[in-house]
Write a sequence for this structure.
């Protein structure tokens, strides 16, 4: 019996959040004595498979029809592999990749699913999973009936797994192309080029809100402070709605959830939906001209003032 | 063309949710409810498609719940839905059982398109649409921020993902889940709301549909989340950097 971990990757290596999912899988497997296996799907996977093998036994589903992650094909293969490997749990990092594909795979397996899990425990031999509800205002403790269970976890809530002493085996999964669905055609992806770290992986996140009216302003204040701290740049929903920042920089209930060591909120009032995406950051700094801004209530440090004046001062101080 | 818009009744986002002391759920005494904002976006998109393509498009709003749900379904009618359907159900649902019920509604109504919100703002699950697509073996396009017809039965959908805006092409019939930036839902006018009070809402039972939804996810308890942080106010940038370096030791 297996704990199957879905290894999202960038074509060359496994995405770092997967190793937090692997930590959970290993811990659950310790209890049950199951094997832990990483499943890699895609095309031209030698480099990814070698990377994954450092951490676990790898199942490799490599086929040109899997070049792009379309939910219909990926869910089909995940379900087939789960059945063949006798998976007791399927675990993934909670990203839009997993949110798109795992529920469909769960349906193919008639499996129960819990997403965005941030903690777990055992009671009377039952696995209890903790996950946020009501935009993070509440934590639900749930159990999943039946097998396999499908679980996505918040990488920021779990430590990264260490590599194995010896690389794991690699098993080739033979993809039956004639049996693969053909429900969608992938056209492409558009993203704002940036050399900054990825939001969900960065140690420091600097986020901007309404005071920044154009992309240039955003870059001059939020971007430059992020660079001074070697951090990622994030934003509120309002900026994406206005076309000032791209959707993949949005932090919040329906955007990315981050938990960096330091989160700097520039001119962000602190709506519940935004807080849901960052309140578990270790240190929160709020800079806002409104002393009553809700963001101050969850911040570690608060500075009342004009962001346009304060940000250049911060950058100067950081340079000292 | 028939567009099915599943809707969920959720606590109003204007209110702060309070957890019952025994953790069994939220305090619902005096709570205001609304159509899940993402489903309102889905309904708006369906209405927009009907406005673009003419009167041969039928928009059906469907909800699963008890008679209390009818007020939100009437809002859907007031916004412009052609019909509203309530699957009578009083109990707990999870994404899986919602998908089972909706699949049965799809078999009955035979829509070309299911347009629904990507997640409900109470459980934030973001699963039901994908599960429905899996059960039906239909194409799915999740987190849609733009939908365009490239052919009468083929859609180009731009999706908001962690990597950026991803575009896919799908053939109908399909399931699409909507994201925030797809559109801004219209408000139902007061005259329309008054008229909707007299419109019939079709009621069907799970038995009529041949389903007996049994959730696989069981809620053990709900816990309030509190943030244990007291904000220390600093006077200026210099003091802040000093605190971050030497007190919090985070830079």
């Amino acid at each position: 019996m297996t704990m199957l971990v879905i290894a999202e990757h960038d074509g060359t290596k496994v995405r770092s959040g997967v190793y937090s999912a692997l930590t959970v899988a290993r811990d659950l497997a310790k209890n049950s004595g199951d094997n832990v296996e990483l499943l890699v799907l895609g095309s031209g996977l030698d480099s990814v498979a070698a990377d994954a093998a450092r951490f676990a036994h790898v199942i490799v589903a490599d086929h040109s029809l899997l070049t792009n992650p379309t939910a219909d094909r990926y869910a089909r293969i995940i379900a087939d592999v789960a059945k063949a490997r006798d998976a007791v749990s399927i675990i993934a990092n909670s990203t839009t990749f997993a949110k798109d594909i795992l529920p469909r795979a769960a349906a193919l397996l008639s499996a129960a699913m819990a997403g965005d899990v941030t903690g777990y425990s055992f009671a009377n031999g039952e696995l209890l999973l903790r996950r946020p509800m009501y935009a993070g205002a509440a934590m639900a403790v749930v159990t999943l009936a039946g097998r396999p269970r499908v679980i996505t976890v918040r990488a920021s809530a779990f430590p990264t797994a260490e590599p194995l002493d010896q690389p794991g085996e690699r098993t080739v999964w033979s993809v039956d192309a004639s049996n693969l669905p053909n429900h969608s055609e992938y056209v492409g992806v558009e993203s704002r080029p940036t050399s900054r770290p990825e939001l969900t992986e960065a140690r420091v996140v600097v986020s901007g809100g309404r005071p920044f009216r154009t992309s240039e302003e955003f870059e001059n204040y939020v971007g430059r402070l992020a660079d001074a701290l070697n951090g990622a740049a994030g934003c509120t929903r309002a900026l994406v709605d206005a076309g000032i920042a791209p959707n993949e920089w949005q932090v919040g209930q329906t955007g990315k959830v981050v938990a960096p060591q330091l989160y700097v909120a520039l001119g962000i009032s602190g709506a519940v939906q935004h807080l849901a995406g960052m309140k578990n950051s270790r240190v929160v700094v709020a800079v806002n001209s409104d002393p009553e801004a809700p963001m101050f209530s969850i911040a570690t440090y608060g500075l009342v003032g004009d962001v346009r004046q304060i940000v250049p001062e911060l950058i100067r101080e950081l340079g000292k | 063309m028939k567009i099915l818009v599943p809707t969920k009744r959720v606590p109003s986002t204007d209110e702060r949710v309070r957890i019952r002391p025994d953790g069994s759920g939220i305090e619902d005494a005096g709570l205001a409810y609304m159509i899940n904002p993402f489903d309102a976006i889905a309904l708006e998109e369906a209405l927009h498609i009907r406005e673009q393509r003419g009167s041969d498009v039928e928009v059906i709003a469907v909800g699963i719940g008890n008679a209390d749900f009818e007020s939100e379904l009437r809002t859907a009618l007031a916004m412009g839905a052609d019909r509203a359907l309530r699957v009578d159900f009083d109990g707990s649902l999870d994404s899986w059982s919602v998908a089972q019920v909706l699949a049965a509604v799809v078999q009955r109504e035979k829509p070309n398109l299911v347009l629904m919100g990507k997640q409900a703002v109470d459980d934030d699950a973001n699963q039901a649409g994908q599960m429905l697509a899996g059960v039906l073996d239909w194409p799915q396009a999740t987190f849609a921020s733009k939908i365009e017809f490239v052919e009468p039965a083929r859609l180009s959908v731009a999706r908001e993902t962690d990597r950026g805006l991803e575009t896919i092409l799908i053939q109908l019939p399909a399931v699409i889940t909507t994201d925030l930036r797809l559109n801004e839902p219209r408000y139902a006018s007061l005259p329309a709301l008054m008229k909707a009070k007299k419109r019939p809402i079709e009621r069907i039972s799970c038995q009529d549909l041949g389903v007996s939804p049994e959730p696989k996810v069981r809620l053990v308890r709900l816990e309030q989340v509190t943030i244990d942080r007291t904000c220390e106010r600093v006077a200026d940038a210099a003091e802040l950097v000093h605190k971050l370096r030497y007190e919090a030791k985070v830079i």
